[in-house]
């Protein structure tokens, strides 16, 4: 089980995480630029695969293409619908070099695209084409990170199956560098105040245009250097923070305005799946009950629909 849920101490791979964050932003912005808008920015995300992360098919004229991170063979694969392929090696190199290689490979495939080179949702961003500072790639920790995403994605999808109201896919947001799934009450929310670093307020307000209960996995950052599972509600009901949630290791962060459960508590549990599902379910119930959601209408009454 420890192999399925590997240790992921943030300080051990911080430089790789920062570099990989920028690489996923470059790839994600290719999808953003070429894809039609879907509510709550669902058209920009990446998805977990059995080898890494993928954009899913992206339209380009009458063609489509897909960009896949492979964290087993440590490659970036660009696959076009006419059969053409380009393969780039994931290795220690600057963000600027990675950006140049991706743009060159797309041009060679007759898939030219121009993206906004300013990173989103981080402090003190460096444009991709000028970022020579971030250049780390530890193959072992990139693989561990993906393996955590695989397990989280699997459990999140089981949790998602319990809900029949509007719900997002389980998807990876390259701006915030986290895996998330979001449930909706069906009611509109008050206007979000915005203020996310280097993200237009209009994008944030559209993302939170309706009431949500959202949960996810976040690998950490210098300000909080540990991986965690999280769950929050927007707008946050007044009694949400006082709710009793499971497991005992979960707690409410007044600084983040969300419940958090350290990843290490899940990986060390007798049943990591059960521990994580308890957290996801109990924090959703806290949000739905405090927010007076119509739970009988929104929740799946049967998990079995035949073969």
Question: Could you write a compact summary of the structure shown?
Answer:
The protein has 307 residues and is an alpha+beta fold. It has helices at 10-34, 95-108, 139-160, 201-207, 263-267, 272-290, 295-298; strands at residues 47-48, 52-54, 58-60, 63-70, 75-80, 85-89, 171-173, 178-188, 210-218, 228-234, 251-253, 258-262.
What does this structure look like?
This protein is α+β, with helices and mostly antiparallel strands. Helices cover 31% and strands 21% of the residues. It is built from 7 helices and 12 strands. The strands form 2 sheets. Strands 1, 2, 3, 4, 5 and 6 form a 6-stranded antiparallel sheet that branches. A 6-stranded antiparallel sheet has the order 7-8-9-10-12-11. A hairpin with a 4-residue loop joins strand 7 and strand 8 (178-188). Helix 1 (10-34) packs parallel to helix 2 (95-108). The longest helix is centred in the first third of the chain and has 25 residues, at 10-34. The radius of gyration is 19 Å and the shape is globular.
What is the count of DSSP helices, taking H or I runs of 4+ residues? 7
Can you tell me the residue ranges where pLDDT is under 50 for at least 5 consecutive residues?
A: none
Overall mean confidence score, pLDDT: 96
Shape: globular
The class by helix and strand makeup works out as alpha+beta
Q: What is the number of beta strands?
A: 12
């Amino acid at each position: 089980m420890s192999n399925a849920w590997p240790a992921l101490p943030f300080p051990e791979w911080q430089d790789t995480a920062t570099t990989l964050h920028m690489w996923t932003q470059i790839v994600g912005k290719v999808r953003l630029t070429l894809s039609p808008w879907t509510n709550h920015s669902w058209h920009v995300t990446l998805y977990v695969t059995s080898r890494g992360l993928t954009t899913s098919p992206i339209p380009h004229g009458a063609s489509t293409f897909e960009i896949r991170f492979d964290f087993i063979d440590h490659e970036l694969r660009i696959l076009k619908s006419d059969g053409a392929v380009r393969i780039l090696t994931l290795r220690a190199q600057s963000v600027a070099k990675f950006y140049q290689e991706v743009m060159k490979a797309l041009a060679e495939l007759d898939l030219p695209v121009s993206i906004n080179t300013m990173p989103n949702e981080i402090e003190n961003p460096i444009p991709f084409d000028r970022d020579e500072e971030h250049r780390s790639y530890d193959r072992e920790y990139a693989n561990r990170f993906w393996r955590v995403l695989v397990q989280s994605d699997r459990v999140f999808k089981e949790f998602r199956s319990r809900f029949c109201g509007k719900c997002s896919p389980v998807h990876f947001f390259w701006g915030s560098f986290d895996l998330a799934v979001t449930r909706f009450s069906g009611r509109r929310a008050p206007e979000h105040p915005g203020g996310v670093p280097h993200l237009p307020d209009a994008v944030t307000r559209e993302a939170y245009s309706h009431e949500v209960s959202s949960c996810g996995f976040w690998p950490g950052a210098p300000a909080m250097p540990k991986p965690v599972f999280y769950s929050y509600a927007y707008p946050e009901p007044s009694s949400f923070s006082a709710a009793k949630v499971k497991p005992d290791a979960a707690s409410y962060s007044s600084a983040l305005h969300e419940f958090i459960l350290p990843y290490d508590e899940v990986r060390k549990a007798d049943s990591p799946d059960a521990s994580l599902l308890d957290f996801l379910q109990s924090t959703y119930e806290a949000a739905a009950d405090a927010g007076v959601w119509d739970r009988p209408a929104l929740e799946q009454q049967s998990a079995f629909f035949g073969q």
